[in-house]
């Protein structure tokens, strides 16, 4: 027989979720101010609380890191989707423009929030140690989720869908081929973006977008003998 939760207990769920959102927002603001190398003490102080309270809501530093990544991923994914959808809804534009729009959306986050990008991609908080405790109900030995890889997977699939809407590889494995193309482009962009952030040389976001789009599209268009354009 299933016993329902006491209303006095369940009514706090919304409050706890709101508090988690507030703590994530405080952490993001602190990262922007103090840099990607910020520690748990500084994050807790920025939120006006203690590490114990932060760990109570997130379990450990990995839990907080994951929550921040999920927040950033939601924004970035929405921007990439919006940018590519706007292009794909215009019959006068094609897959090359969609790739360019997706690349630019990715680079825009780095340009606007470089410290937040470093925090998410390079994981400095996790390198500081494994303080705190695991979240309630998490079995010992359970591997932590990798939100960065999850985000890369989703964006790669988005790019693949944009390409696949216009180009169709020959052969029975067409969907796998398009997915490979999409993820290869994301890897290309991420590698160049990391270098752009680490070694600034005056290259603008617009210039980098053009360079990466030219390189990516040269590869795709070079497959012309094996690919047919999908007619709308």
UniProtKB/TrEMBL annotation:
<feature type="DNA-binding region" description="H-T-H motif">
    <location>
        <begin position="39"/>
        <end position="58"/>
    </location>
</feature>
<dbReference type="InterPro" id="IPR050109">
    <property type="entry name" value="HTH-type_TetR-like_transc_reg"/>
</dbReference>
<dbReference type="InterPro" id="IPR036271">
    <property type="entry name" value="Tet_transcr_reg_TetR-rel_C_sf"/>
</dbReference>
<feature type="domain" description="HTH tetR-type">
    <location>
        <begin position="17"/>
        <end position="76"/>
    </location>
</feature>
<dbReference type="InterPro" id="IPR045823">
    <property type="entry name" value="TetR_C_32"/>
</dbReference>
<protein>
    <submittedName>
        <fullName>AcrR family transcriptional regulator</fullName>
    </submittedName>
</protein>
<dbReference type="InterPro" id="IPR001647">
    <property type="entry name" value="HTH_TetR"/>
</dbReference>
<keyword id="KW-0238">DNA-binding</keyword>
<dbReference type="Pfam" id="PF00440">
    <property type="entry name" value="TetR_N"/>
</dbReference>
<dbReference type="Pfam" id="PF19344">
    <property type="entry name" value="TetR_C_32"/>
</dbReference>
<dbReference type="InterPro" id="IPR009057">
    <property type="entry name" value="Homeodomain-like_sf"/>
</dbReference>
